[in-house]
Amino acid sequence: MVGSLPESATKHDLRFLARMDKLRRYPNYLKNKGYMPTTIRNMAINIVSLYKHVKNVFLEESRLKVEDIDRVLYELTRLQAEIRRDVVVQQQRVKRQKTNNQLDSEQELSFLYAAKRRIPMLMDAIDKGGYQKDQHSTLMGYLMAYLCVISGHRSVVLTNMTKEHVANADQWNNGTRFQVLGCKLSKPSKFLHLAWSDAGLKGPVSFTLIRSSVATQAERHLSETERRKVARAICHDPTTAERFYVALPTRESAYENRKLRMKALMCEKQKAIGDLQEFKLSGRSGRKAIDNAKQVATHCFRFCYYMVGSLPESATKHDLRFLARMDKLRRYPNYLKNKGYMPTTIRNMAINIVSLYKHVKNVFLEESRLKVEDIDRVLYELTRLQAEIRRDVVVRQQRVKRQKTNNQLDSEQELSFLYAAKRRIPMLMDAIDKGGYQKDQHSTLMGYLMAYLCVISGHRSVVLTNMTKEHEASYSLSSETS
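Structure (tokenized):
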């Protein structure tokens, strides 16, 4: 940020930190220097911390204005959104590389069989012939890779093991103790490759690929509880193994949206909210990003419509001062509650309203004719309201969870239904085939088919109700279901 400024311009204050043109070029500067997107993301987080610290502790000495720092922080939020896109691309690239190099379960099983055969042979050879560097290195590779495949631990866990760790290990089934040579191992991947080749296996291998294989197989073949146990055992955060999925697009409040757009007095509000919607998108074109940005705009329009209330058009047409009506703001959560909105929806609306006020503060302050103090006062009040809303969300979540628990289906009920479905579906199809279309029989048959598929697959009803003849025709039926 100092760049080519003279020493006199940087010696006694921090005003050079407000150079917006330099700030905007900083991510590209780091990228050209060869820094990875994840490193740039971490740098941006720490830079935000610096500006906040200057604002709260060194404001007077820095000779910066609060407005300057707020403007920089807002710009950093936009830059962080762009950096996050690069991070996602990098993560997807790494994930694709891991996927392409994914170890096959057959390879791992073959290695385990080879390790059980070769480890005793190598230990006997070393015991009889003395220390042999190649044999010892291959033995270490077998031992570390074997433990990694069956436990999923990182290589550092194995390279830092000592004779005492092995000798003090718990024993069961009258197991015998054994000790490995107690020297600290460096470059464990070299030993792994020696053992992998000795086992007659080809292709890339590393301890990271083995851990990735452990996590992938656990996700595909174990229950959620079992998967989390495996994740904890290999020191993984369980959430790192979860799949990302795109939620169904929201369709809420189309009628409300139409009403709001018909309001003639939404001139300045449309401009501010439309700009906020573009800011939330930040160049992203995915369906989820577009739906989320639309939802932000919808929530903000609804809030503005409420805050305007019965004010005359002249009081709302040319500025946003109506947004400072604290009495209306405090009643907004109860207003939504009386309208029938769920606490989780009210929570999301409050988050988007906070975004609106911050956007107005940083981008439309002059046009809004609001004061910084007014917006800060509103944001402080919103923080208090959000705390109250969170309490309602927790109560709601507990109530839903209790209701689900009380209405939990018994496995015996589901099994009984499956047996009944296998018996009744052919009978109903024969009855319809012989006697023609019967509304009651057809409805019962549809119920059996959808419920049977739901029990064995766990899909939502919308997946089943949206199935067409073409979907069924595109599947090749197995002999078991034909």
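Confidence is low (pLDDT under 50) at residues 175-182, 241-268, 476-482. The two ends are 71 Å apart (CA to CA).
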